[in-house]
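Exam prep: given the inputs below (a chain plus zinc ion), describe the expected output before reading on.
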Amino acid sequence: MKFAATAQSPYGIKCDCLVEFVNKNGINAIAKDTPTAVTQAINHLRQQGDLSESAHARMVYPEGEASAKRILVVPVEFELKANSPAHTTGKHLSGIANTIAKAISDYPIKDLVIHFDDRFMHSAPLSDQDGVRDAQVFTAALLNAVYKSDAFKGKETQDKNKKKLKSLPGLAKVTLATQDAELKDVKQGLVQGEAVGLGMITARNLGDAPPNICNPQYFTAEAKKLAKKHPKLTVKVLGEKELKALGAGAYLAVTQGSANPPQLITMEYKGGKASDKPICFVGKGLTFDSGGISIKPGAGMDEMKYDMCGAGSVMGVMQAAAELKLPINIVGAIAAAENMPASNATRPGDIVTTMSGQTVEILNTDAEGRLVLCDTLTYVQDKFKPQVVINMATLTGACIVALGHHTAAVMGNTPELTQELQELSLKVNDPIWELPLWSEYTDDLKSPFADIPNIAGGRGAGTIIAGCYLQKFIKDVPWAHLDIAGVAWNSGAAKGATGRPVHLLMQYLFKQLDTKPASDKAAGPAVRKRKPTARKTTVKK
Ligand code: BES
Ligand code: MN
Ligand code: ZN
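Solution:
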């Protein structure tokens, strides 16, 4: 699927379908040149009362002269109040993208033109309008809304799907038609959004892949594939032998009952100056978490193939950053492993020595994410001397109890970092919310035999306790931990990985570029604030 932006009038572009946004009065975007055929079609819908409900898109056929074969009329109602949560705008734009994807899914539409005027799509003057970000959020959301993989269907089904123009992957081109004054911002946002969207899709594909295919070795192969495409990206893999030599006792304890050996994969992307310290992302990559000897209940256990979604997001970010040629240095580390029961598996009560030298009493083999992460965190801090470390992990079921499936948790040792991440997450509708790592919680991590246990004695605050455990392995570096257990995948009828939090992490990278001193700034795509423009609406009746 190709994305393009243009300042050409949407009414002059031949296409299978034109998307027009209208408000509840049936008034479409700020265009003086709306052809009668389009105006009439919209008026007709309005007269029938068919535009009264928002979120319902209507397909209409223009009578007479029009460059589009069909017009998808999408009612948008949006009001940003002073007390609206900060992710309202992004949620609204993603919602529009989803509505469009759903509405066109039954039609053989190959090229789509969207009358993209974000002032109209918001349908209200915004104090915090940002044309770049709007186009970025919209593009990434649309890409994800139309994408569905059939990689694990049988050949016959795949062949059928290929022939069916009706299926969404048949959509070949999407053009955002905007105004001259907006074109630069929309183009920039579109380029960013496309890379972000594809990064999310990579994370989704890895998440959805079955655990007999997507094992630690598979991650290594994927990382190497990515590095082959991008000369500035190099991969290093530590296997069982290397981890032993480094003294990664906690990591190895998780994986010792599995026939699939561990792989600690580091991807180094060098887009910045050699002297720039890297931004380091670390992902929990449990390609399957059975719980080990502390085995999980059977119902829904298949979903523990998603226990590698932190690692999947690292892969998605490395891909997007390399694709955009961002002028910064990034390290992506993936702690890939499989947690299985076996006669040689770790027992509850086993004590191991971590790479940091601290000993850990493993009271529950199902609290394994923190065990692979603690050694990986030690490794990346020692090896890469990063300026900042951000780790992503489907770490605790307790996080779902605390925040449900909308919001991920963030914890850390630097309030400026956790707050910055929280703010950015809301702007791109990939929301996270901070939980405290206070000493009252850390004090719960006491073992009579080892330096620390891997779980606390008490019952509450499981997400925070896991964060406190990780913090014991952080030295002198700003660090944030994202618990994505509730947001990384959807269950039920719409089962599938979400690609979160790739968008947030990319937005963090864009922001770092944007706030670098001017002399230091390369031409990479940053997020710019748009100058406020007066809002003019030409009412067509
Ligand atoms: N991968 C799980 C956490 C999880 C469970 C994520 C369900 C999403 C849905 C993690 O390894 C785990 O098992 N955590 C335990 C920790 C407990 C033993 C302290 C949990 O949450 O039950
Ligand atoms: Mn577990
Ligand atoms: Zn796990």
